[in-house]
Amino acid sequence: DTEVTQTPKHLVMGMTNKKSLKCEQHMGHRAMYWYKQKAKKPPELMFVYSYEKLSINESVPSRFSPECPNSSLLNLHLHALQPEDSALYLCASSQGTGGSLVPQYFGPGTRLLVL
Amino acid sequence: KQEVTQIPAALSVPEGENLVLNCSFTDSAIYNLQWFRQDPGKGLTSLLLIQSSQREQTSGRLNASLDKSSGRSTLYIAASQPGDSATYLCAVFIQGAQKLVFGQGTRLTINP
Fold first, then answer.
1. What pLDDT, in 10s, does the model give residues B80-104?
2. B100, A102: Cβ pair inside 8 Å?
3. Which of A36, A65, B7, B54 is such that its CA lies 20 to 30 A from the CA of B91?
4. Which positions of chain A have pLDDT values less than 70?
5. Which residues between 1 and 60 in chain A have a beta carbon less than 8 angstroms from any beta carbon of chain B?
């Protein structure tokens, strides 16, 4: 099973709302990632968790707050977003973060629209 | 700073043709290179992973090659089918940075 699941598939929120994106994998992977992808652009890395600890934050605004409750789950909490934050949010996982331990497996994404 | 370039940006060919997608990167200090496929509005599907010590990988009609010294990789698709229509992304895993760097992708259309 090489599946990464993400919920919800679509999300519409206002700029004052608080919402969360959820990602789950059951492959025993110890690294999990959040990416943001705008239309016709490649994914941009936001956060990396390794063994449930945040290891990389690519200078993401604090209105995005990641959380890794356990080795299978990754959440992205959203608060006071801006319309320019509308994008496809992708979760990925890999066995580890060392270069020899990729590949990364991606989920189907959550399409977010901020009004 | 590692930069990854994919040429062409878009490609349209008739069904049945063999085709080559190109990927180049500026810094040869990579662990590996990964080719992905992305259908519109969907997530990424990993197609092939080539370790830096390898020259090529094959999966079905797909063959990916890597020339690390020249900073180039190619994805060869044999006997293309309309179902191959998608955006193809290459990404390199940088030594020491613990992250993938993506190219801009090639949007492929296979016409029946």
1. 999 999 999 999 988 777 788 999 9
2. yes
3. A65
4. 1-2, 98-101
5. 4, 6, 41-43, 45, 48, 55-56
